[in-house]
Each structure stands twice: as structure tokens, then as C-alpha cells.
Write a structure and sequence with these properties.
6-stranded parallel sheet; Arc Repressor Mutant, subunit A; Sig_transdc_resp-reg_receiver; about 220 residues; 11 helices; about 15% strand; DNA binding; Rossmann fold
Length: about 220
């Protein structure tokens, strides 16, 4: 079985070493690199671009936000999962805008890391429950919430079903198998959701859904 290759970017060596030890529990994962800051990471991937990067945010020389932007401009197939000690609203917005596919706390348990890697590797997204609560909490007032309710009423039952599964991190093929549709049909419904929500990719759609309370947490 081909392994998912992973690079860890964090300015604390103790954390990097601990995460590497944790990831050794997964036989489907191979850690191929580690870096202490964004600048070092950008040099590292010139030689070997991994499938997934666990990216810290606050680092010297170059932070995780800028490193993610530059890496994805050159290597768009890399999937970045942001790692943070604290669920900070401002950093969440910036990392999502930079193009991450996942966002989780460093204190997450081993099961969360396993879920995150598998979902992101399969083309889905992963946001830990603490991050989802921050995204959803107090971000929209009554006026915007009413707009979300109005939008929800404009979605078909099938679109609502697919949106819920997308927000659980499933990719097109997994959704198609689960609800007995072809991947092409799922993609068509997904395109309709992009159009109705004025979003342009899966992660933005997921964040929009959480912000506007289009799905239940």
C-alpha cells in the first residue's frame, strides 16, 4: 500500500519529535521531512514535496500563513493541515484564506490525527470540533443568520444532504457510494452549492456552512 507522505513544520523540536513518534503508530503514513520555520520548509520541498504538511502558524523567519501561500502557489497538490495551540479567530480566517485543507489543535488525540490524515489524503477536509465552534461562535448577527436561514430554504433536500456529508469531510466518491449516486452527479450538486453560496472550493463551502449555521454541529 502506498503511504501518505508527511512533512512537519514547527519551531519547537520537542513537538516535532513527539508528533513523529505519534505518526509512527500509523502504518499508512511516512514522515519524509521536518522544518523549524516556513523559510526552511520552502527550501525542503524543493527536493521532495509531501502529500500532507502539518503547519504551525507562529514561527520565526516566516510564519505558517505566508509559508502556506507560497508553497501552494508552487505546489498546488500539497495538502496543508494547520496546527495551533489556541483557536484564534484571526489566524483561522488567515490560514483558511491561505488555502489549508484542515485545521486542528496541537493537543488533539491520536484518533483525531488519524481522521485528519485520512480525510485530507482522500480529498476531503478536516476541522477539529474546537475549531468549528470558534468559526461558528458569534461570527454572524441576526441579520446574517436570517440570510443563512433564507439560503437554507433555497437548497434542495439532496443539496442539504450532500452539504452535510461534505462538512463531515467526505469526498465525492465516498458521498456517491453512501447515497447511491454517481460521482459525476455529486459533483453537479456540489457545483450548485458553490453557486448558491458564492464559494469557490470545498473548504470555503464548509466554512460558509458553519458560519451561517446551514448544518447542525
Amino acid at each position: 500500500m502506498e503511504k501518505t507522505t508527511i512533512t512537519i513544520v514547527d519551531d519547537h523540536k520537542i513537538f516535532r519529535d513527539g508528533l513523529i513518534l505519534l505518526l509512527r503508530n500509523f502504518d499508512f503514513v511516512s514522515v519524509v521531512g521536518q522544518a523549524a520555520n516556513g523559510q526552511e520548509f520552502l527550501g525542503l520541498i524543493e527536493n521532495e514535496a509531501p502529500d500532507i504538511v502539518f503547519m504551525d502558524i507562529n514561527m520565526p523567519k516566516m510564519n505558517g500563513i505566508e509559508a502556506t501561500k507560497q508553497a501552494l502557489q508552487k505546489y498546488p497538490d500539497i495538502k496543508v493541515i494547520a496546527l495551533t495551540s489556541f483557536a484564534d479567530d484571526e489566524y483561522i480566517e488567515q490560514m483558511i484564506s491561505a488555502g489549508v485543507e484542515g485545521y486542528m489543535l496541537k493537543r488533539s488525540n491520536i484518533e483525531d490525527f488519524e481522521k485528519a490524515i485520512k480525510k485530507v489524503a482522500d480529498g476531503g477536509s478536516y476541522f477539529s470540533s474546537e475549531i468549528i465552534k470558534v468559526i461558528s461562535r458569534n461570527l454572524y448577527k441576526d441579520k446574517e443568520r436570517k440570510l443563512g436561514e433564507q439560503l437554507l430554504s433555497n437548497l434542495t433536500s439532496r443539496e442539504k444532504e450532500i452539504l452535510n456529508l461534505i462538512c463531515k469531510g467526505l469526498n465525492n466518491e465516498q458521498i456517491a457510494e453512501l447515497i447511491n449516486l454517481s460521482p459525476k452527479t455529486v459533483e453537479k450538486h456540489k457545483s450548485n452549492l458553490f453557486q448558491k453560496t458564492a464559494t469557490f472550493n470545498t473548504v470555503n463551502l464548509v466554512i460558509y456552512a458553519f458560519k451561517n449555521q446551514l448544518i447542525s454541529l
